[in-house]
Amino acid sequence: MNFTNSLTKWYLQNKRDLPWRNTQNPYFIWLSEIMLQQTRVAQGMPYFFAFSTAFPTVFELANASEEQVLKLWQGLGYYSRARNLHKTAQKVAFELNGIFPTTYNDLLKLKGIGDYTAAAIASFSYNEAVPVVDGNVFRVLSRYFDIETDIASASAKKEFASIAFELMTKNARGGAELSEANPALFNQAIMEFGALQCVPKSPNCEICVLNSGCLALKRKKVGQLPVKSKKTKVRNRYFNYIIFSDVNENTLIQKRSDKGIWHNLYEFPLIETETEEDFEFISAQIQEQPMVENGIISISELSPKSQIHKLSHQHLHIKFWKVNVNETLENGIDYETLLRLPFPIVIFNFIEKEWK
């Protein structure tokens, strides 16, 4: 069988109607690719529509404040993507006259654009014959060709990209539509095939158009591929957020300025502990190390059980504590103002659902 022709024919019959597939505009393709890094299509779609509506060109995005960008990104996670998105928009708008680089190598020079995103933009917008290699591509190729290379290894991307390039440019038959003249079609097809058909767990191999040539299926190794070394050990952290409330029901917030998670997002004053602590410990901390000059009226625990917020390499165990104080807080913020600012989604959900 011919892998490339079978794959692309399957794609033309089964592809999803996604908005970024109906354009060759590099701005929208770039926007979608950044959003879909480590994000499911269903989750990323509303954000794509929100950004493309609020910022219809790279100039509007470049002229927005970082706070506006982070607020619109709120809930999508991996916020460094949003900060890099904003910086790259400013470079393209102000230094490149709004014109994205037209080659894979030049696209790689932009902040936040790696091999995969550069290949996607170069092929989808400019028809450059460069393969994309994401998790879907790793999975399809490793199973079809029974490749046991650890996809987390340094050499894996180069090896799989070489195979994909060979399939894209030399194995296609039946005209220019399925060959090097249309690399976008091959790239879209193999990614979509991995997303819809050759899924990570329990794929339906009986209906697969590639099943006659799939070595993993023949050797009963579908569930074992791709090979990926174990993830980095997850770190547990314990966050105690202090919700000060004055006579006007105003509160205090701070911006996370340190590098690391949630950089430049807002949060409440924080006491981070080594383990989960009880009321007695936290209330003593609040009173011994006063964060405000106002007198404390009462301290109460708003979340007796920690919320666990899972990030890629960290599990955050989060509790909220309310501290009622005398008089008015200096630099106090009201509820309506809170809603307009960018917070980590776990904090924003608390503000929306449990504040009043």
TrEMBL record:
InterPro entries: A/G_AdeGlyc_MutY (IPR005760), DNA_glycosylase (IPR011257), HhH-GPD_domain (IPR003265), HhH_base_excis_C (IPR023170), HhH_motif (IPR000445), MIG/MutY (IPR044298), MutY_C (IPR029119), NUDIX_hydrolase-like_dom_sf (IPR015797). GO terms for biological process: base-excision repair; mismatch repair. It catalyses: Hydrolyzes free adenine bases from 7,8-dihydro-8-oxoguanine:adenine mismatched double-stranded DNA, leaving an apurinic site. Transmembrane segments: none annotated. Binds 1 [4Fe-4S] cluster. It holds the Pfam family HHH. GO terms for molecular function: 4 iron, 4 sulfur cluster binding; 8-oxo-7,8-dihydroguanine DNA N-glycosylase activity; adenine/guanine mispair binding; metal ion binding; oxidized purine DNA binding; purine-specific mismatch base pair DNA N-glycosylase activity. Keywords: 4Fe-4S, DNA damage, DNA repair, Glycosidase, Hydrolase, Iron, Iron-sulfur, Metal-binding. Its cofactor is [4Fe-4S] cluster. The keyword Metal-binding applies. Residues 35-196 form the HhH-GPD domain. Its EC number is 3.2.2.31. It comes from the Bacteria. Adenine glycosylase active on G-A mispairs. MutY also corrects error-prone DNA synthesis past GO lesions which are due to the oxidatively damaged form of guanine: 7,8-dihydro-8-oxoguanine (8-oxo-dGTP). PANTHER family: ADENINE DNA GLYCOSYLASE. Belongs to the Nth/MutY family. This is Adenine DNA glycosylase.
